[in-house]
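Why run this: before we spend reagent on co-expression, it is cheaper to look at a predicted model of the complex and decide which construct boundaries make sense. The entries below are exactly what would go into the expression plan.
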Amino acid sequence: MKLITAIIKPFKLDDVRVALTEQGIHGLTVTEVKGFGRQKGHTELYRGAEYVIDFLPKLKIEIAVAESSVDQVIEVISRSANTGKIGDGKIFISSIEQVIRIRTGETGEEAL
Amino acid sequence: MFNNYKKTLFLSTFLLVPSLVSADELSGGDTAWILTSTALVLFMTIPGLSLFYAGLVRSKNALSVLMQCFTITCVASVMWLILGYSMSFSNGGSMNEWMGGFSNLFLSEVTREGMSGTIPESIFAMFQMTFAIITPALVIGGFAERMKFSAMIWFTILWSIVVYYPVCHWVWGGGWLGDKGTLDFAGGLVVHITAGVGALVAAVVLGKRSGFPGTMMPPHNMTMTVTGAGMLWVGWFGFNGGSALAANGDAAMAILVTHISAAIASLSWMICEWIKYGKPSVLGIVTGMVAGLGSITPASGFVGPMGAIVIGLTAGIVCFTVTNYMKRILHIDDSLDVFPVHGIGGIIGTLLVAVFVSSQFGGAGLAEGMTIGSQFVVQLTAVVATIVWTIIASFIILKITDLICGNRVNDENERIGLDITQHEEKGYDL
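The model came back. C-alpha cells follow.
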C-alpha cells in the first residue's frame, strides 16, 4: 500500500477530484498549506512599505491506495493538476505499513 | 471656523452693522445645518476613522484601535464639558492671547437661550466638541499597536489640555493667532497639524514597533479601511461646511472645494504610485483622499475651485513623497502615517490659503491691508508656532505618562497583540 501526497494549486482541486472519481479512485484528504518551491512569491506594497510574500497558498491531498493503483493515480493527478506553468506542485509516494478501518477493524487492503 | 476678524469685516462691509447686533437672532437654517454637521463630524470618528485605522493594523490589534477611538470619543467629550470648552472659547482675561479662562467650566454659562452668532451656543459647543474628539483620535495612528491603553487615556487627557485647547483658543477663541489674521477655516492648524505633529512625536518617543521595518505588518482588512475612508469623505462635508457656522455661501463653497480637493488628491496619489511602483493601489487612492481633505481644511471657506485643484494636486504629490521618505529612508514608525498625511497636509493647506484666498485666484479675497506676501508670513508664523508648541508639549506629556504608568506594553504583550493583552477580547473568532 502506498500513500500518495500531492501538493497542488488550490484552484485545481475540483479538476483533480473529478478526474480521480472518474477513474474509480475514492477517498482523499485535503489540507490547506503554504509553501514554496521554485516558484517565487509575490510582493505587496502598502504606502511604500514593501513586503515579500514567500509562502504561497497550496493544497495538500493525501490518498492511500493499493500498490496496483499507484501508477494510475499518479497519471491522473499529473494530468488534471497540470497548468504547464511554474508552481503546479509535486507528488510524493511513500509506503504504508498498515491501514485499519476504525468502524469494522478491517486491516490491510480490505480497509482501503 | 471662520475667522472672527474676517467675519466682522464681511458683515460691516456688506450689512453695515457690527456683527454683534445680529448675534442674538436665531437662524433656523443655520441652526439646522450645524446640527447636521455636528452629527457628520462625530460620524467621522465613530465609525469612520475607527474603521479606517482598524483595517490598517494587524488582526491582533484591530479591536484595540476601535477601542481607543471609542474611548477617546467618551473621554474627550467629558473633558470638553469639564474644562475644554471654557479653555478654548471663554475669555482668558489678561492671558487671553494665550489661553481661555475658566468661567465656563462644566458649560455653566451655556443655556438654552444663549446664542453664538445665529445659532444656539449649545450646538456651537457641541459642534466644537466633535473636533476636540477627532483630533486626539487621529493621533493614535502614530503609536498604534504598542501603546498601553492606560497610557493612551492619560495622553489624551493631558494632550487635550496642553495642546488642543490652547491652540484652538489661539486660532478660533480670540487668541493671538486669530488676532494676527491667521486663516484657518476648519482646522488645518488646530486639528491636522497638532494631530500630525503629536503623532510623530509619539512615534519617536515610544519607538518602533518590534520588528519594524523588517517584519511584515500589512493591513489586516483593507475592505474595512476603504469603508472607513468613504465615511470620512462624507463626514468631512460637515467638518468643513459646518465650519462656516451658517448655512450660506461660505458653507456651500467649502463643501465644493473640499470635494474637488479630495478627488484630485486621490487621483494624484494613485498616479504617483502607479508611476513609481507600477500598480495603482487601493490604499494609495484612499490615503490620497485623506491628504486632500486634510489639506483643503484650513482653506475650505476661503478659496475657490481653482485653489482647490492646486491644493489637492499638491497634497497628493507631496504627502505621497513624504510618506515614502519617512518610511523607506528615515525608518520612523509613525505606524498609520499620521504626520505625512495630516501634518504635512495641514501645513500645505495653511500655507497655500494665503495665495488662493486672493480674489484674483477665485478666493473670498484677502483681508483689508493684507497682501499675499503678508498673509503668507502670518500663516507661516502660525504653522511654526503650532509645530513648535506641539512638539515641546507632546514630548513632555509623553515623559509624564511614561512616569505614571509606562507608555509601552512589554515585548511579549506586543507580540501577542493588544486585543488580548489589553482587553482580553479578540476582534475575530474565525
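The longest helix of chain B spans residues 372-405. The CA atoms of residues 194 and 390 of chain B lie 6 Å apart. Bring this page to Monday's planning discussion.
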